[in-house]
Amino acid sequence: MSIQAENLNLEGVKTELYGRNHPSLTPVDIEAHAKTLHRVLALKQKHNVVMLGHNYMEPLVFGLSTKQEQGDSLGLSMHAAKTTAPYIIFNGVPFMAETAKILNPSKTVLVADKTAGCSLADNFGAADVKSLKVMYPDVPVMIYINSYADAKAESDVCCTSANAAKIAREMPGDQIVFVPDIYFAQNLEDELAGEKTVIYPGKGNHEKGAVCEVHEEFRLSDLLAVRESFVIPKGHGSRVLYAHWECRREVLREADFYGSTSQIMQDIAKRVKENQLERAFVASECELTSNLSQEFPTVQFWTACSVRCSHMAKVNLAKVLHILEAIDAGDSLSDYEVTLGPDVIERARTPIERMLQMSA
Ligand code: SF4
Questions:
Q1: Which fold has domain 121-211?
Q2: Is the distance from the beta carbon of residue 315 to the nearest atom of ligand 1 less than 6 Å?
Q3: Beta-carbon neighbour count of residue 273 at 10 Å?
């Protein structure tokens, strides 16, 4: 849900907030935040800022973006690639903003907190890719989009959770190195069994690899407990248990549907349209479910709000306002701007563009 331009006066902002389907957004919250939201939206419009909102943002931040400005990291970067606006504020973590910068290097790309990390991107860098390339010199390296630009620059092709299987199938040879997410690699290995061998960190080598600290939280026993307490029997037509690709192998096997964030959202939208979704649990970041609850109010969502990405949570309304106030005052944006050297931009663009061509 996003606040439309026609609601830009303070009363319009409040009306929109009161109309939201969000259990933790109380009248006290609304009265406390409405002024800040109003100021952010007014400055966004005044300076023609594109404000990209990742699905894992808290609802108040997510709602600052229009529907077209909301999505997953690749969808948002593709939106960034097309924009003519001078400023892009990327409400997500810095590796996401880097991809936007690579695809549209002439724009000023800003993030609310440059210290926000990611357990995947932070724990697997360019040196790790190079080391695997030495071990497997003739095998193409496919890197997950959740990585920094310098690691992408050393890789042959990039992928997202929505297109990894398709791209792996189409890359030359009968083997592929996938980095850095170990659980994702194992799920890909299952998906490609009998077609292509997936090599990944820790499988026959001493590389460490990484996992998403959020999706790692879900264990098979959690899903079974959710099934029982929320009454979502396996295979039930309109009660569905979803899991993200970054979850453990056994969690994916237990889920009724697994996929990328965008694939999960598309499946929910399709079922809602067909009046086929009564209840759902999504094994993923908790604010994704908060945002889904607002978008699909007819569905009963259960959420695990202890499973929050601490890195994504560093982005908040007050910090986004700081960026816009700095733009408005003509102050330095160096605390927020994502910068990359021309050489890294050039080399990291190649695997990203290859992915875009292959997934078209
Ligand atoms: S949820 Fe957080 S830790 Fe997991 S991949 Fe996204 S940014 Fe990284």
A1: Rossmann fold (3.40.50)
A2: no
A3: 9
